[in-house]
Amino acid sequence: MQIYNTLTGKKEEFKPLEKNKVKMYVCGPTVYNYIHIGNARPYIVFDAFRRYLEYKGMEVNYVQNFTDVDDKIIKKANETNKTMKEIADKYIAEAFKDADGLNVKRATYHPRVTEEIPSIIKMIQTLMDKGYAYEVKGSVYFDTQAYPEYGKLSKKRQEDLEAGARIAIDEEKRNPMDFVLWKPKKQGEPAWKSPWGEGRPGWHIECSVMAKKYLGDTIDIHAGGEDLVFPHHENEIAQSEAANGKPFANYWIHNRFLNVDNRKMSKSLGNFFTVRDVSKEFPYEVIRFFMLSAHYRSPINFSRELMESAKNGLERIKTSLSNMQHVIDHSLPKSLTVEEEKRVEEIPIFRKKFEKAMEDDINTADAIAAIFELVKFANTYVNLDSSTEFIQKLQKEIKNLCNILGLLEQEEEDKIENEIEDLIQQREEARKNKNWIIADQIRDQLKEQGIILEDTPAGVRWKRVNE
Ligand code: AMP
Ligand code: ZN
User: How far, in Å, CA of 32 to CA of 69, rounded?
Assistant: First the structure.
């Protein structure tokens, strides 16, 4: 599988450090409001990527943090007479509601900054001990001069960074590009004890710490929106590689931004939409379909018209499925005709196209196009005379391809059937490797679920005992 790596500026073959195991870290939201429609893009595209890796048999350890200490959260807490924790708890719960609606799987871990302070202090201390950080009056800064590779992700050179640094030169910093790791306590702000006095962490250090703690020193994939390349991810690399003495992430993946009516979304322009508000007009599944209809590295424009067209697209798939169901419900059982058998042999072509698109830098737009081709194929060849078996094969393949992308609710029965088929596949593998014990174990496991297997010349068939 090829993925575009921001670090090297090229598409590369994706090879996880450990075979079939993927360590993936995705920067999460700062929780002071409902997630907005822009935030939904990384949520959905990286979830689709994860699902595809899982479909390929990889075990994905997926970590997404919540930034639950930040100026904006503190401001909101002060304005509403609540504590920072009350604000964060509320918007974390709301973010989960939206993510569930969007069919985004829960991460393996969802760490929160306020629960990781001791590990954060420890990493800052390591950076101090190794000479990569310095303290000035209760603030600790990362010394970018001490890390010569600074700028390698964003392809900025130290000199350019300094020349272009617009921020007023902070007297305290040795260099304008140095960034804060620990901030001293301010009046009315939450603070924790540290070797440098009471204070709280800067923003960037949290992700270096959480990635290390939950995934290890070197991870496979680090992802987020394009705005994070600089400075956030550049700073994460500096912190992690300086502290751990090892490469941080092998693949850096960034989604392009979502604009609204071709303009940057912002509260001041009055074109700011939360996912919750949009979901009142367009169901969550339409939002998901909309996001996946574009390649994650193309900018995407959010407008009512484009949402309407996403809605129609999804409807086309659903209508085809329900029309096919209608034929099944109103026809007598028939067996596959010779003509249909030939058509059935064509079905895998669509899956190959789908996979080819996904293997090419997660091209969900082309993957969805392959689903539409299959829908068209079904609409062309299914008629009132079609056999139930033929129709079911088409329905199932459309649903399965959609499910790989997290589209369409997966029906319980389909899930069970997929699991049974996975087990049969594993048993076949075991038998090929003459691993009879495993093969028998799988057969027994299925038997307990009331499934019996029949080895036929055409392959393994299964049926339910009570059928
Ligand atoms: P934030 O809460 O701003 O840190 O954002 C959380 C995630 O959403 C990050 O990965 C951002 O890069 C991403 N993000 C924010 N705004 C947009 C946008 N308009 N389009 C796409 N991604 C965005
Ligand atoms: Zn981050």
Answer: 9
Burial of 25 (0-12, 13-18, 19+ CB in 10 A): buried
What is the architecture, at CATH level 2, of domain 310-410? Up-down Bundle (1.20)
* Third-level CATH fold of 2-255: Rossmann fold (3.40.50)
Task: End-to-end CA distance of the chain: give it in Å, rounded.
Answer: 41
| H or E element, residue 209 | helix 205-215
pTM for this one?
0.89
List, for residues 126-145, the tens digit of each pLDDT value: 999 999 999 999 999 999 99
Q: What is the DSSP letter of 8?
A: T
Residue-wise pLDDT for 1-13, tens only, equals 999 999 999 999 9
Which-ligand-closest: CA of 38?
1
The answer to which of 39-48, 398-407, 432-441 has the lowest mean pLDDT is: 432-441
Helix (H) or strand (E) holding 278: helix 275-281
Which residues make beta-bridge pairs with 259?
301
With a 6 Å cutoff on the Cβ, whether 272 touches ligand 1 is no
Using CA atoms, how far apart are residues 463 and 467, in angstroms rounded to an integer? 7
Would you state the structure tokens that stand for residue 231, as one six-digit string? 């400075």
The residue whose CA has the least distance to atom 18 of ligand 1 is: 38
User: Interior CA angle at 401 toward 322 and 303, to 5°?
Assistant: 80
Q: At what angle do helices 205-215 and 117-129 cross, to 10 degrees?
A: 100
Which ligand 1 atom sits nearest the alpha carbon of residue 28? 6
Distance between CA 324 and CA 201 in Å, rounded? 57
Which long-range contacts does 261-268 make (Cβ < 8 Å, 24+ apart)? 261/301, 261/302, 261/303, 262/301, 262/303, 265/36, 265/37, 265/38, 265/302
Ion ligand 2: residues, CB within 5 A, are 27, 207
| Other CB atoms within 10 A of residue 256 CB | 17
3-state secondary structure of 59: strand
The answer to whether 38 and 225 are in contact (CB under 8 A) is yes
Residue nearest to atom 7 of ligand 1 (CA): 39
- Atom 5, ligand 1: residue with shortest CA distance: 29
Closest CA to 22 of 42, 51, 43, 45: 51
The Cα-based distances of 116 to 129, 179, 243, 380 in angstroms read 20, 20, 17, 57
Using a 6 Å cutoff on CB, does residue 44 contact ligand 1?
no
So what's the pLDDT on residue 162? 67
* Domain boundaries defined on the chain: 2-255, 310-410, 413-464
Residue 258's φ and ψ, nearest 5 degrees, are -100, 130
pLDDT at residue 412 tops 80: no
- What are the distances in angstroms from CA 190 to CA 179, 199, 207, 383? 21, 8, 20, 67
